[in-house]
Write a structure and sequence with these properties.
By secondary structure, this protein is α/β, with parallel strands linked by helices. The chain contains 19 helices and 19 strands.
Length: 566
Amino acid sequence: MKTWKIKPLPNPELVQNLAQQLKLNVYLTKLLIQRGINTPEEAQLFFHPDLSHLHDPFLMKGMDKAVARISTALNKKEKILVYGDYDVDGTTSIALMVSYLKSQQATVEFYTPDRYKEGYGVSLPGIVYAKEKGVTLIISLDCGINAHSAIQSACDANIDFIVCDHHLPDNILPPALAILDPKQPECHYPFKELSGCGIGFKLIQALAISKGFDIQTIKPWLDLVTLSIASDIVPVTGENRILSAHGLKIINSTPRPGIRALLDMLGKKSAFSISDLVFGVGPKINAAGRISSARLAVDLLMADEMETARKLAIDINTHNDTRKEFDADTTFEALELLKQTEGYNEMCTTVIYHPEWQKGVIGIVASRLIEHHYRPTIVLTKSNGVAVGSARSVAGFDIYQALSSCKDLLIQYGGHKYAAGLTISTEKIPEFIQKFDEEVTKKITKEQLVSSIEIDLKINLSQILPDFVRKLSDFEPYGPGNMAPVFMSETVYDSGFARKVGSNHLKMVLRQENSISFDGIAFGMAEHYPYISRGIPFNACYCVEENEWNGRRTVQLNVKDVNYTM
């Protein structure tokens, strides 16, 4: 059972004044203010995100050093190695940096660690590879901020190192020549939530500026940046909103062949959104590193010809099908193990270990388990003699800080508030399970252990007029920090057209008294069919969407949850 939380309504006087100044619907004005937009000037920036509003990349600590060293490498024709993680953020970062450097006639190649042999981040085998290739400069992307020993090894081999990362650093920074990470101490860069690929984009922006070029020259790389923003679940606010708004325009007009090949597989006729990238494209790219090698994904993203891109996309899609099988099997096994875990129902956490689970899917499985048992979750498996794990959190709870409280038991850990990774000796797992649950229990609230839906506004269906829907589209792109508005309407009912579709979904035609009807879709909610099909009235919370078919646009209500009024 989900709880419904309706956001507080903003000050009526502020709403009225801003609505008059903007000539905007009162309900849409309330949505703006809920997003922290209180003036016409702020609204102008929100509705018209412009590349000219990006921050000066040289405000980022270490940028001067990084640009100077790369410029020297370009002038001297030094061999550069671009090193990136194996997920979407890492592979898009590599594709961006390698292709940009090649456009500057650089001698460059790339390296992605093997998920199973090397694990996450900058590895010693990667440094050995660089030595063998005669590399004199390594640029890491989406990793490196805590890779002390590997970067020291590079320094010992007279290889300079530039770190481009967005993860939280340890108290001591690695011995790199330059570190670009807005989260490092004494970095006064105004926006702290760039993706790893976003950091890479700021670096090529700075390189372009140093050569006298403006932002338009590097705009074609924004499709990669937007894919990373979507897939790494970073806030779609500030610079990320500007970058993704322009990147989506490229994705919907002239994306690079690799992205086009993956989008074609979705079979969608209308414009692609951040959500399409998150659920349709990102998992396919991630599957390359989970099942095979992330090099396959980088090759796809850097493909110049559509024919090559389509062949690589087919291979990646095959890996994604395999990933889905592993995902489903492992989730089933994990749920069965939890049923047998003594005392599990009294705990605030899920920590589960099986030595034979596929390392590439444990993060996905952790998310799946939260759908069944809503609590901070860690799934562990065995790799190279130790246990490795993926952690996922629930809304409002910082799982990274909880791991920090247990760091004396861990070999290493890193990540974000809602997602993290860890390595631990297998013999310490029982002690860790107990301590982690104790630490979470101290800090988590009862409300955070119940899945909830945040509702922006209560409205009547009669408010959903064509102008309302058109203006609502200006709130996109949606994502964390600017989620698609969720509305709630009371006493709605199906007009007699409810039917089950697919495996577990429900289609309806919804209306209230004195309103027109709207098509509705409720994913995974077919259990409500016996009630809704009988015309029983209910309260619905939903997102307003537009569908396009054969050139005709229609409004659809994407129902998130229902509760009954009788």
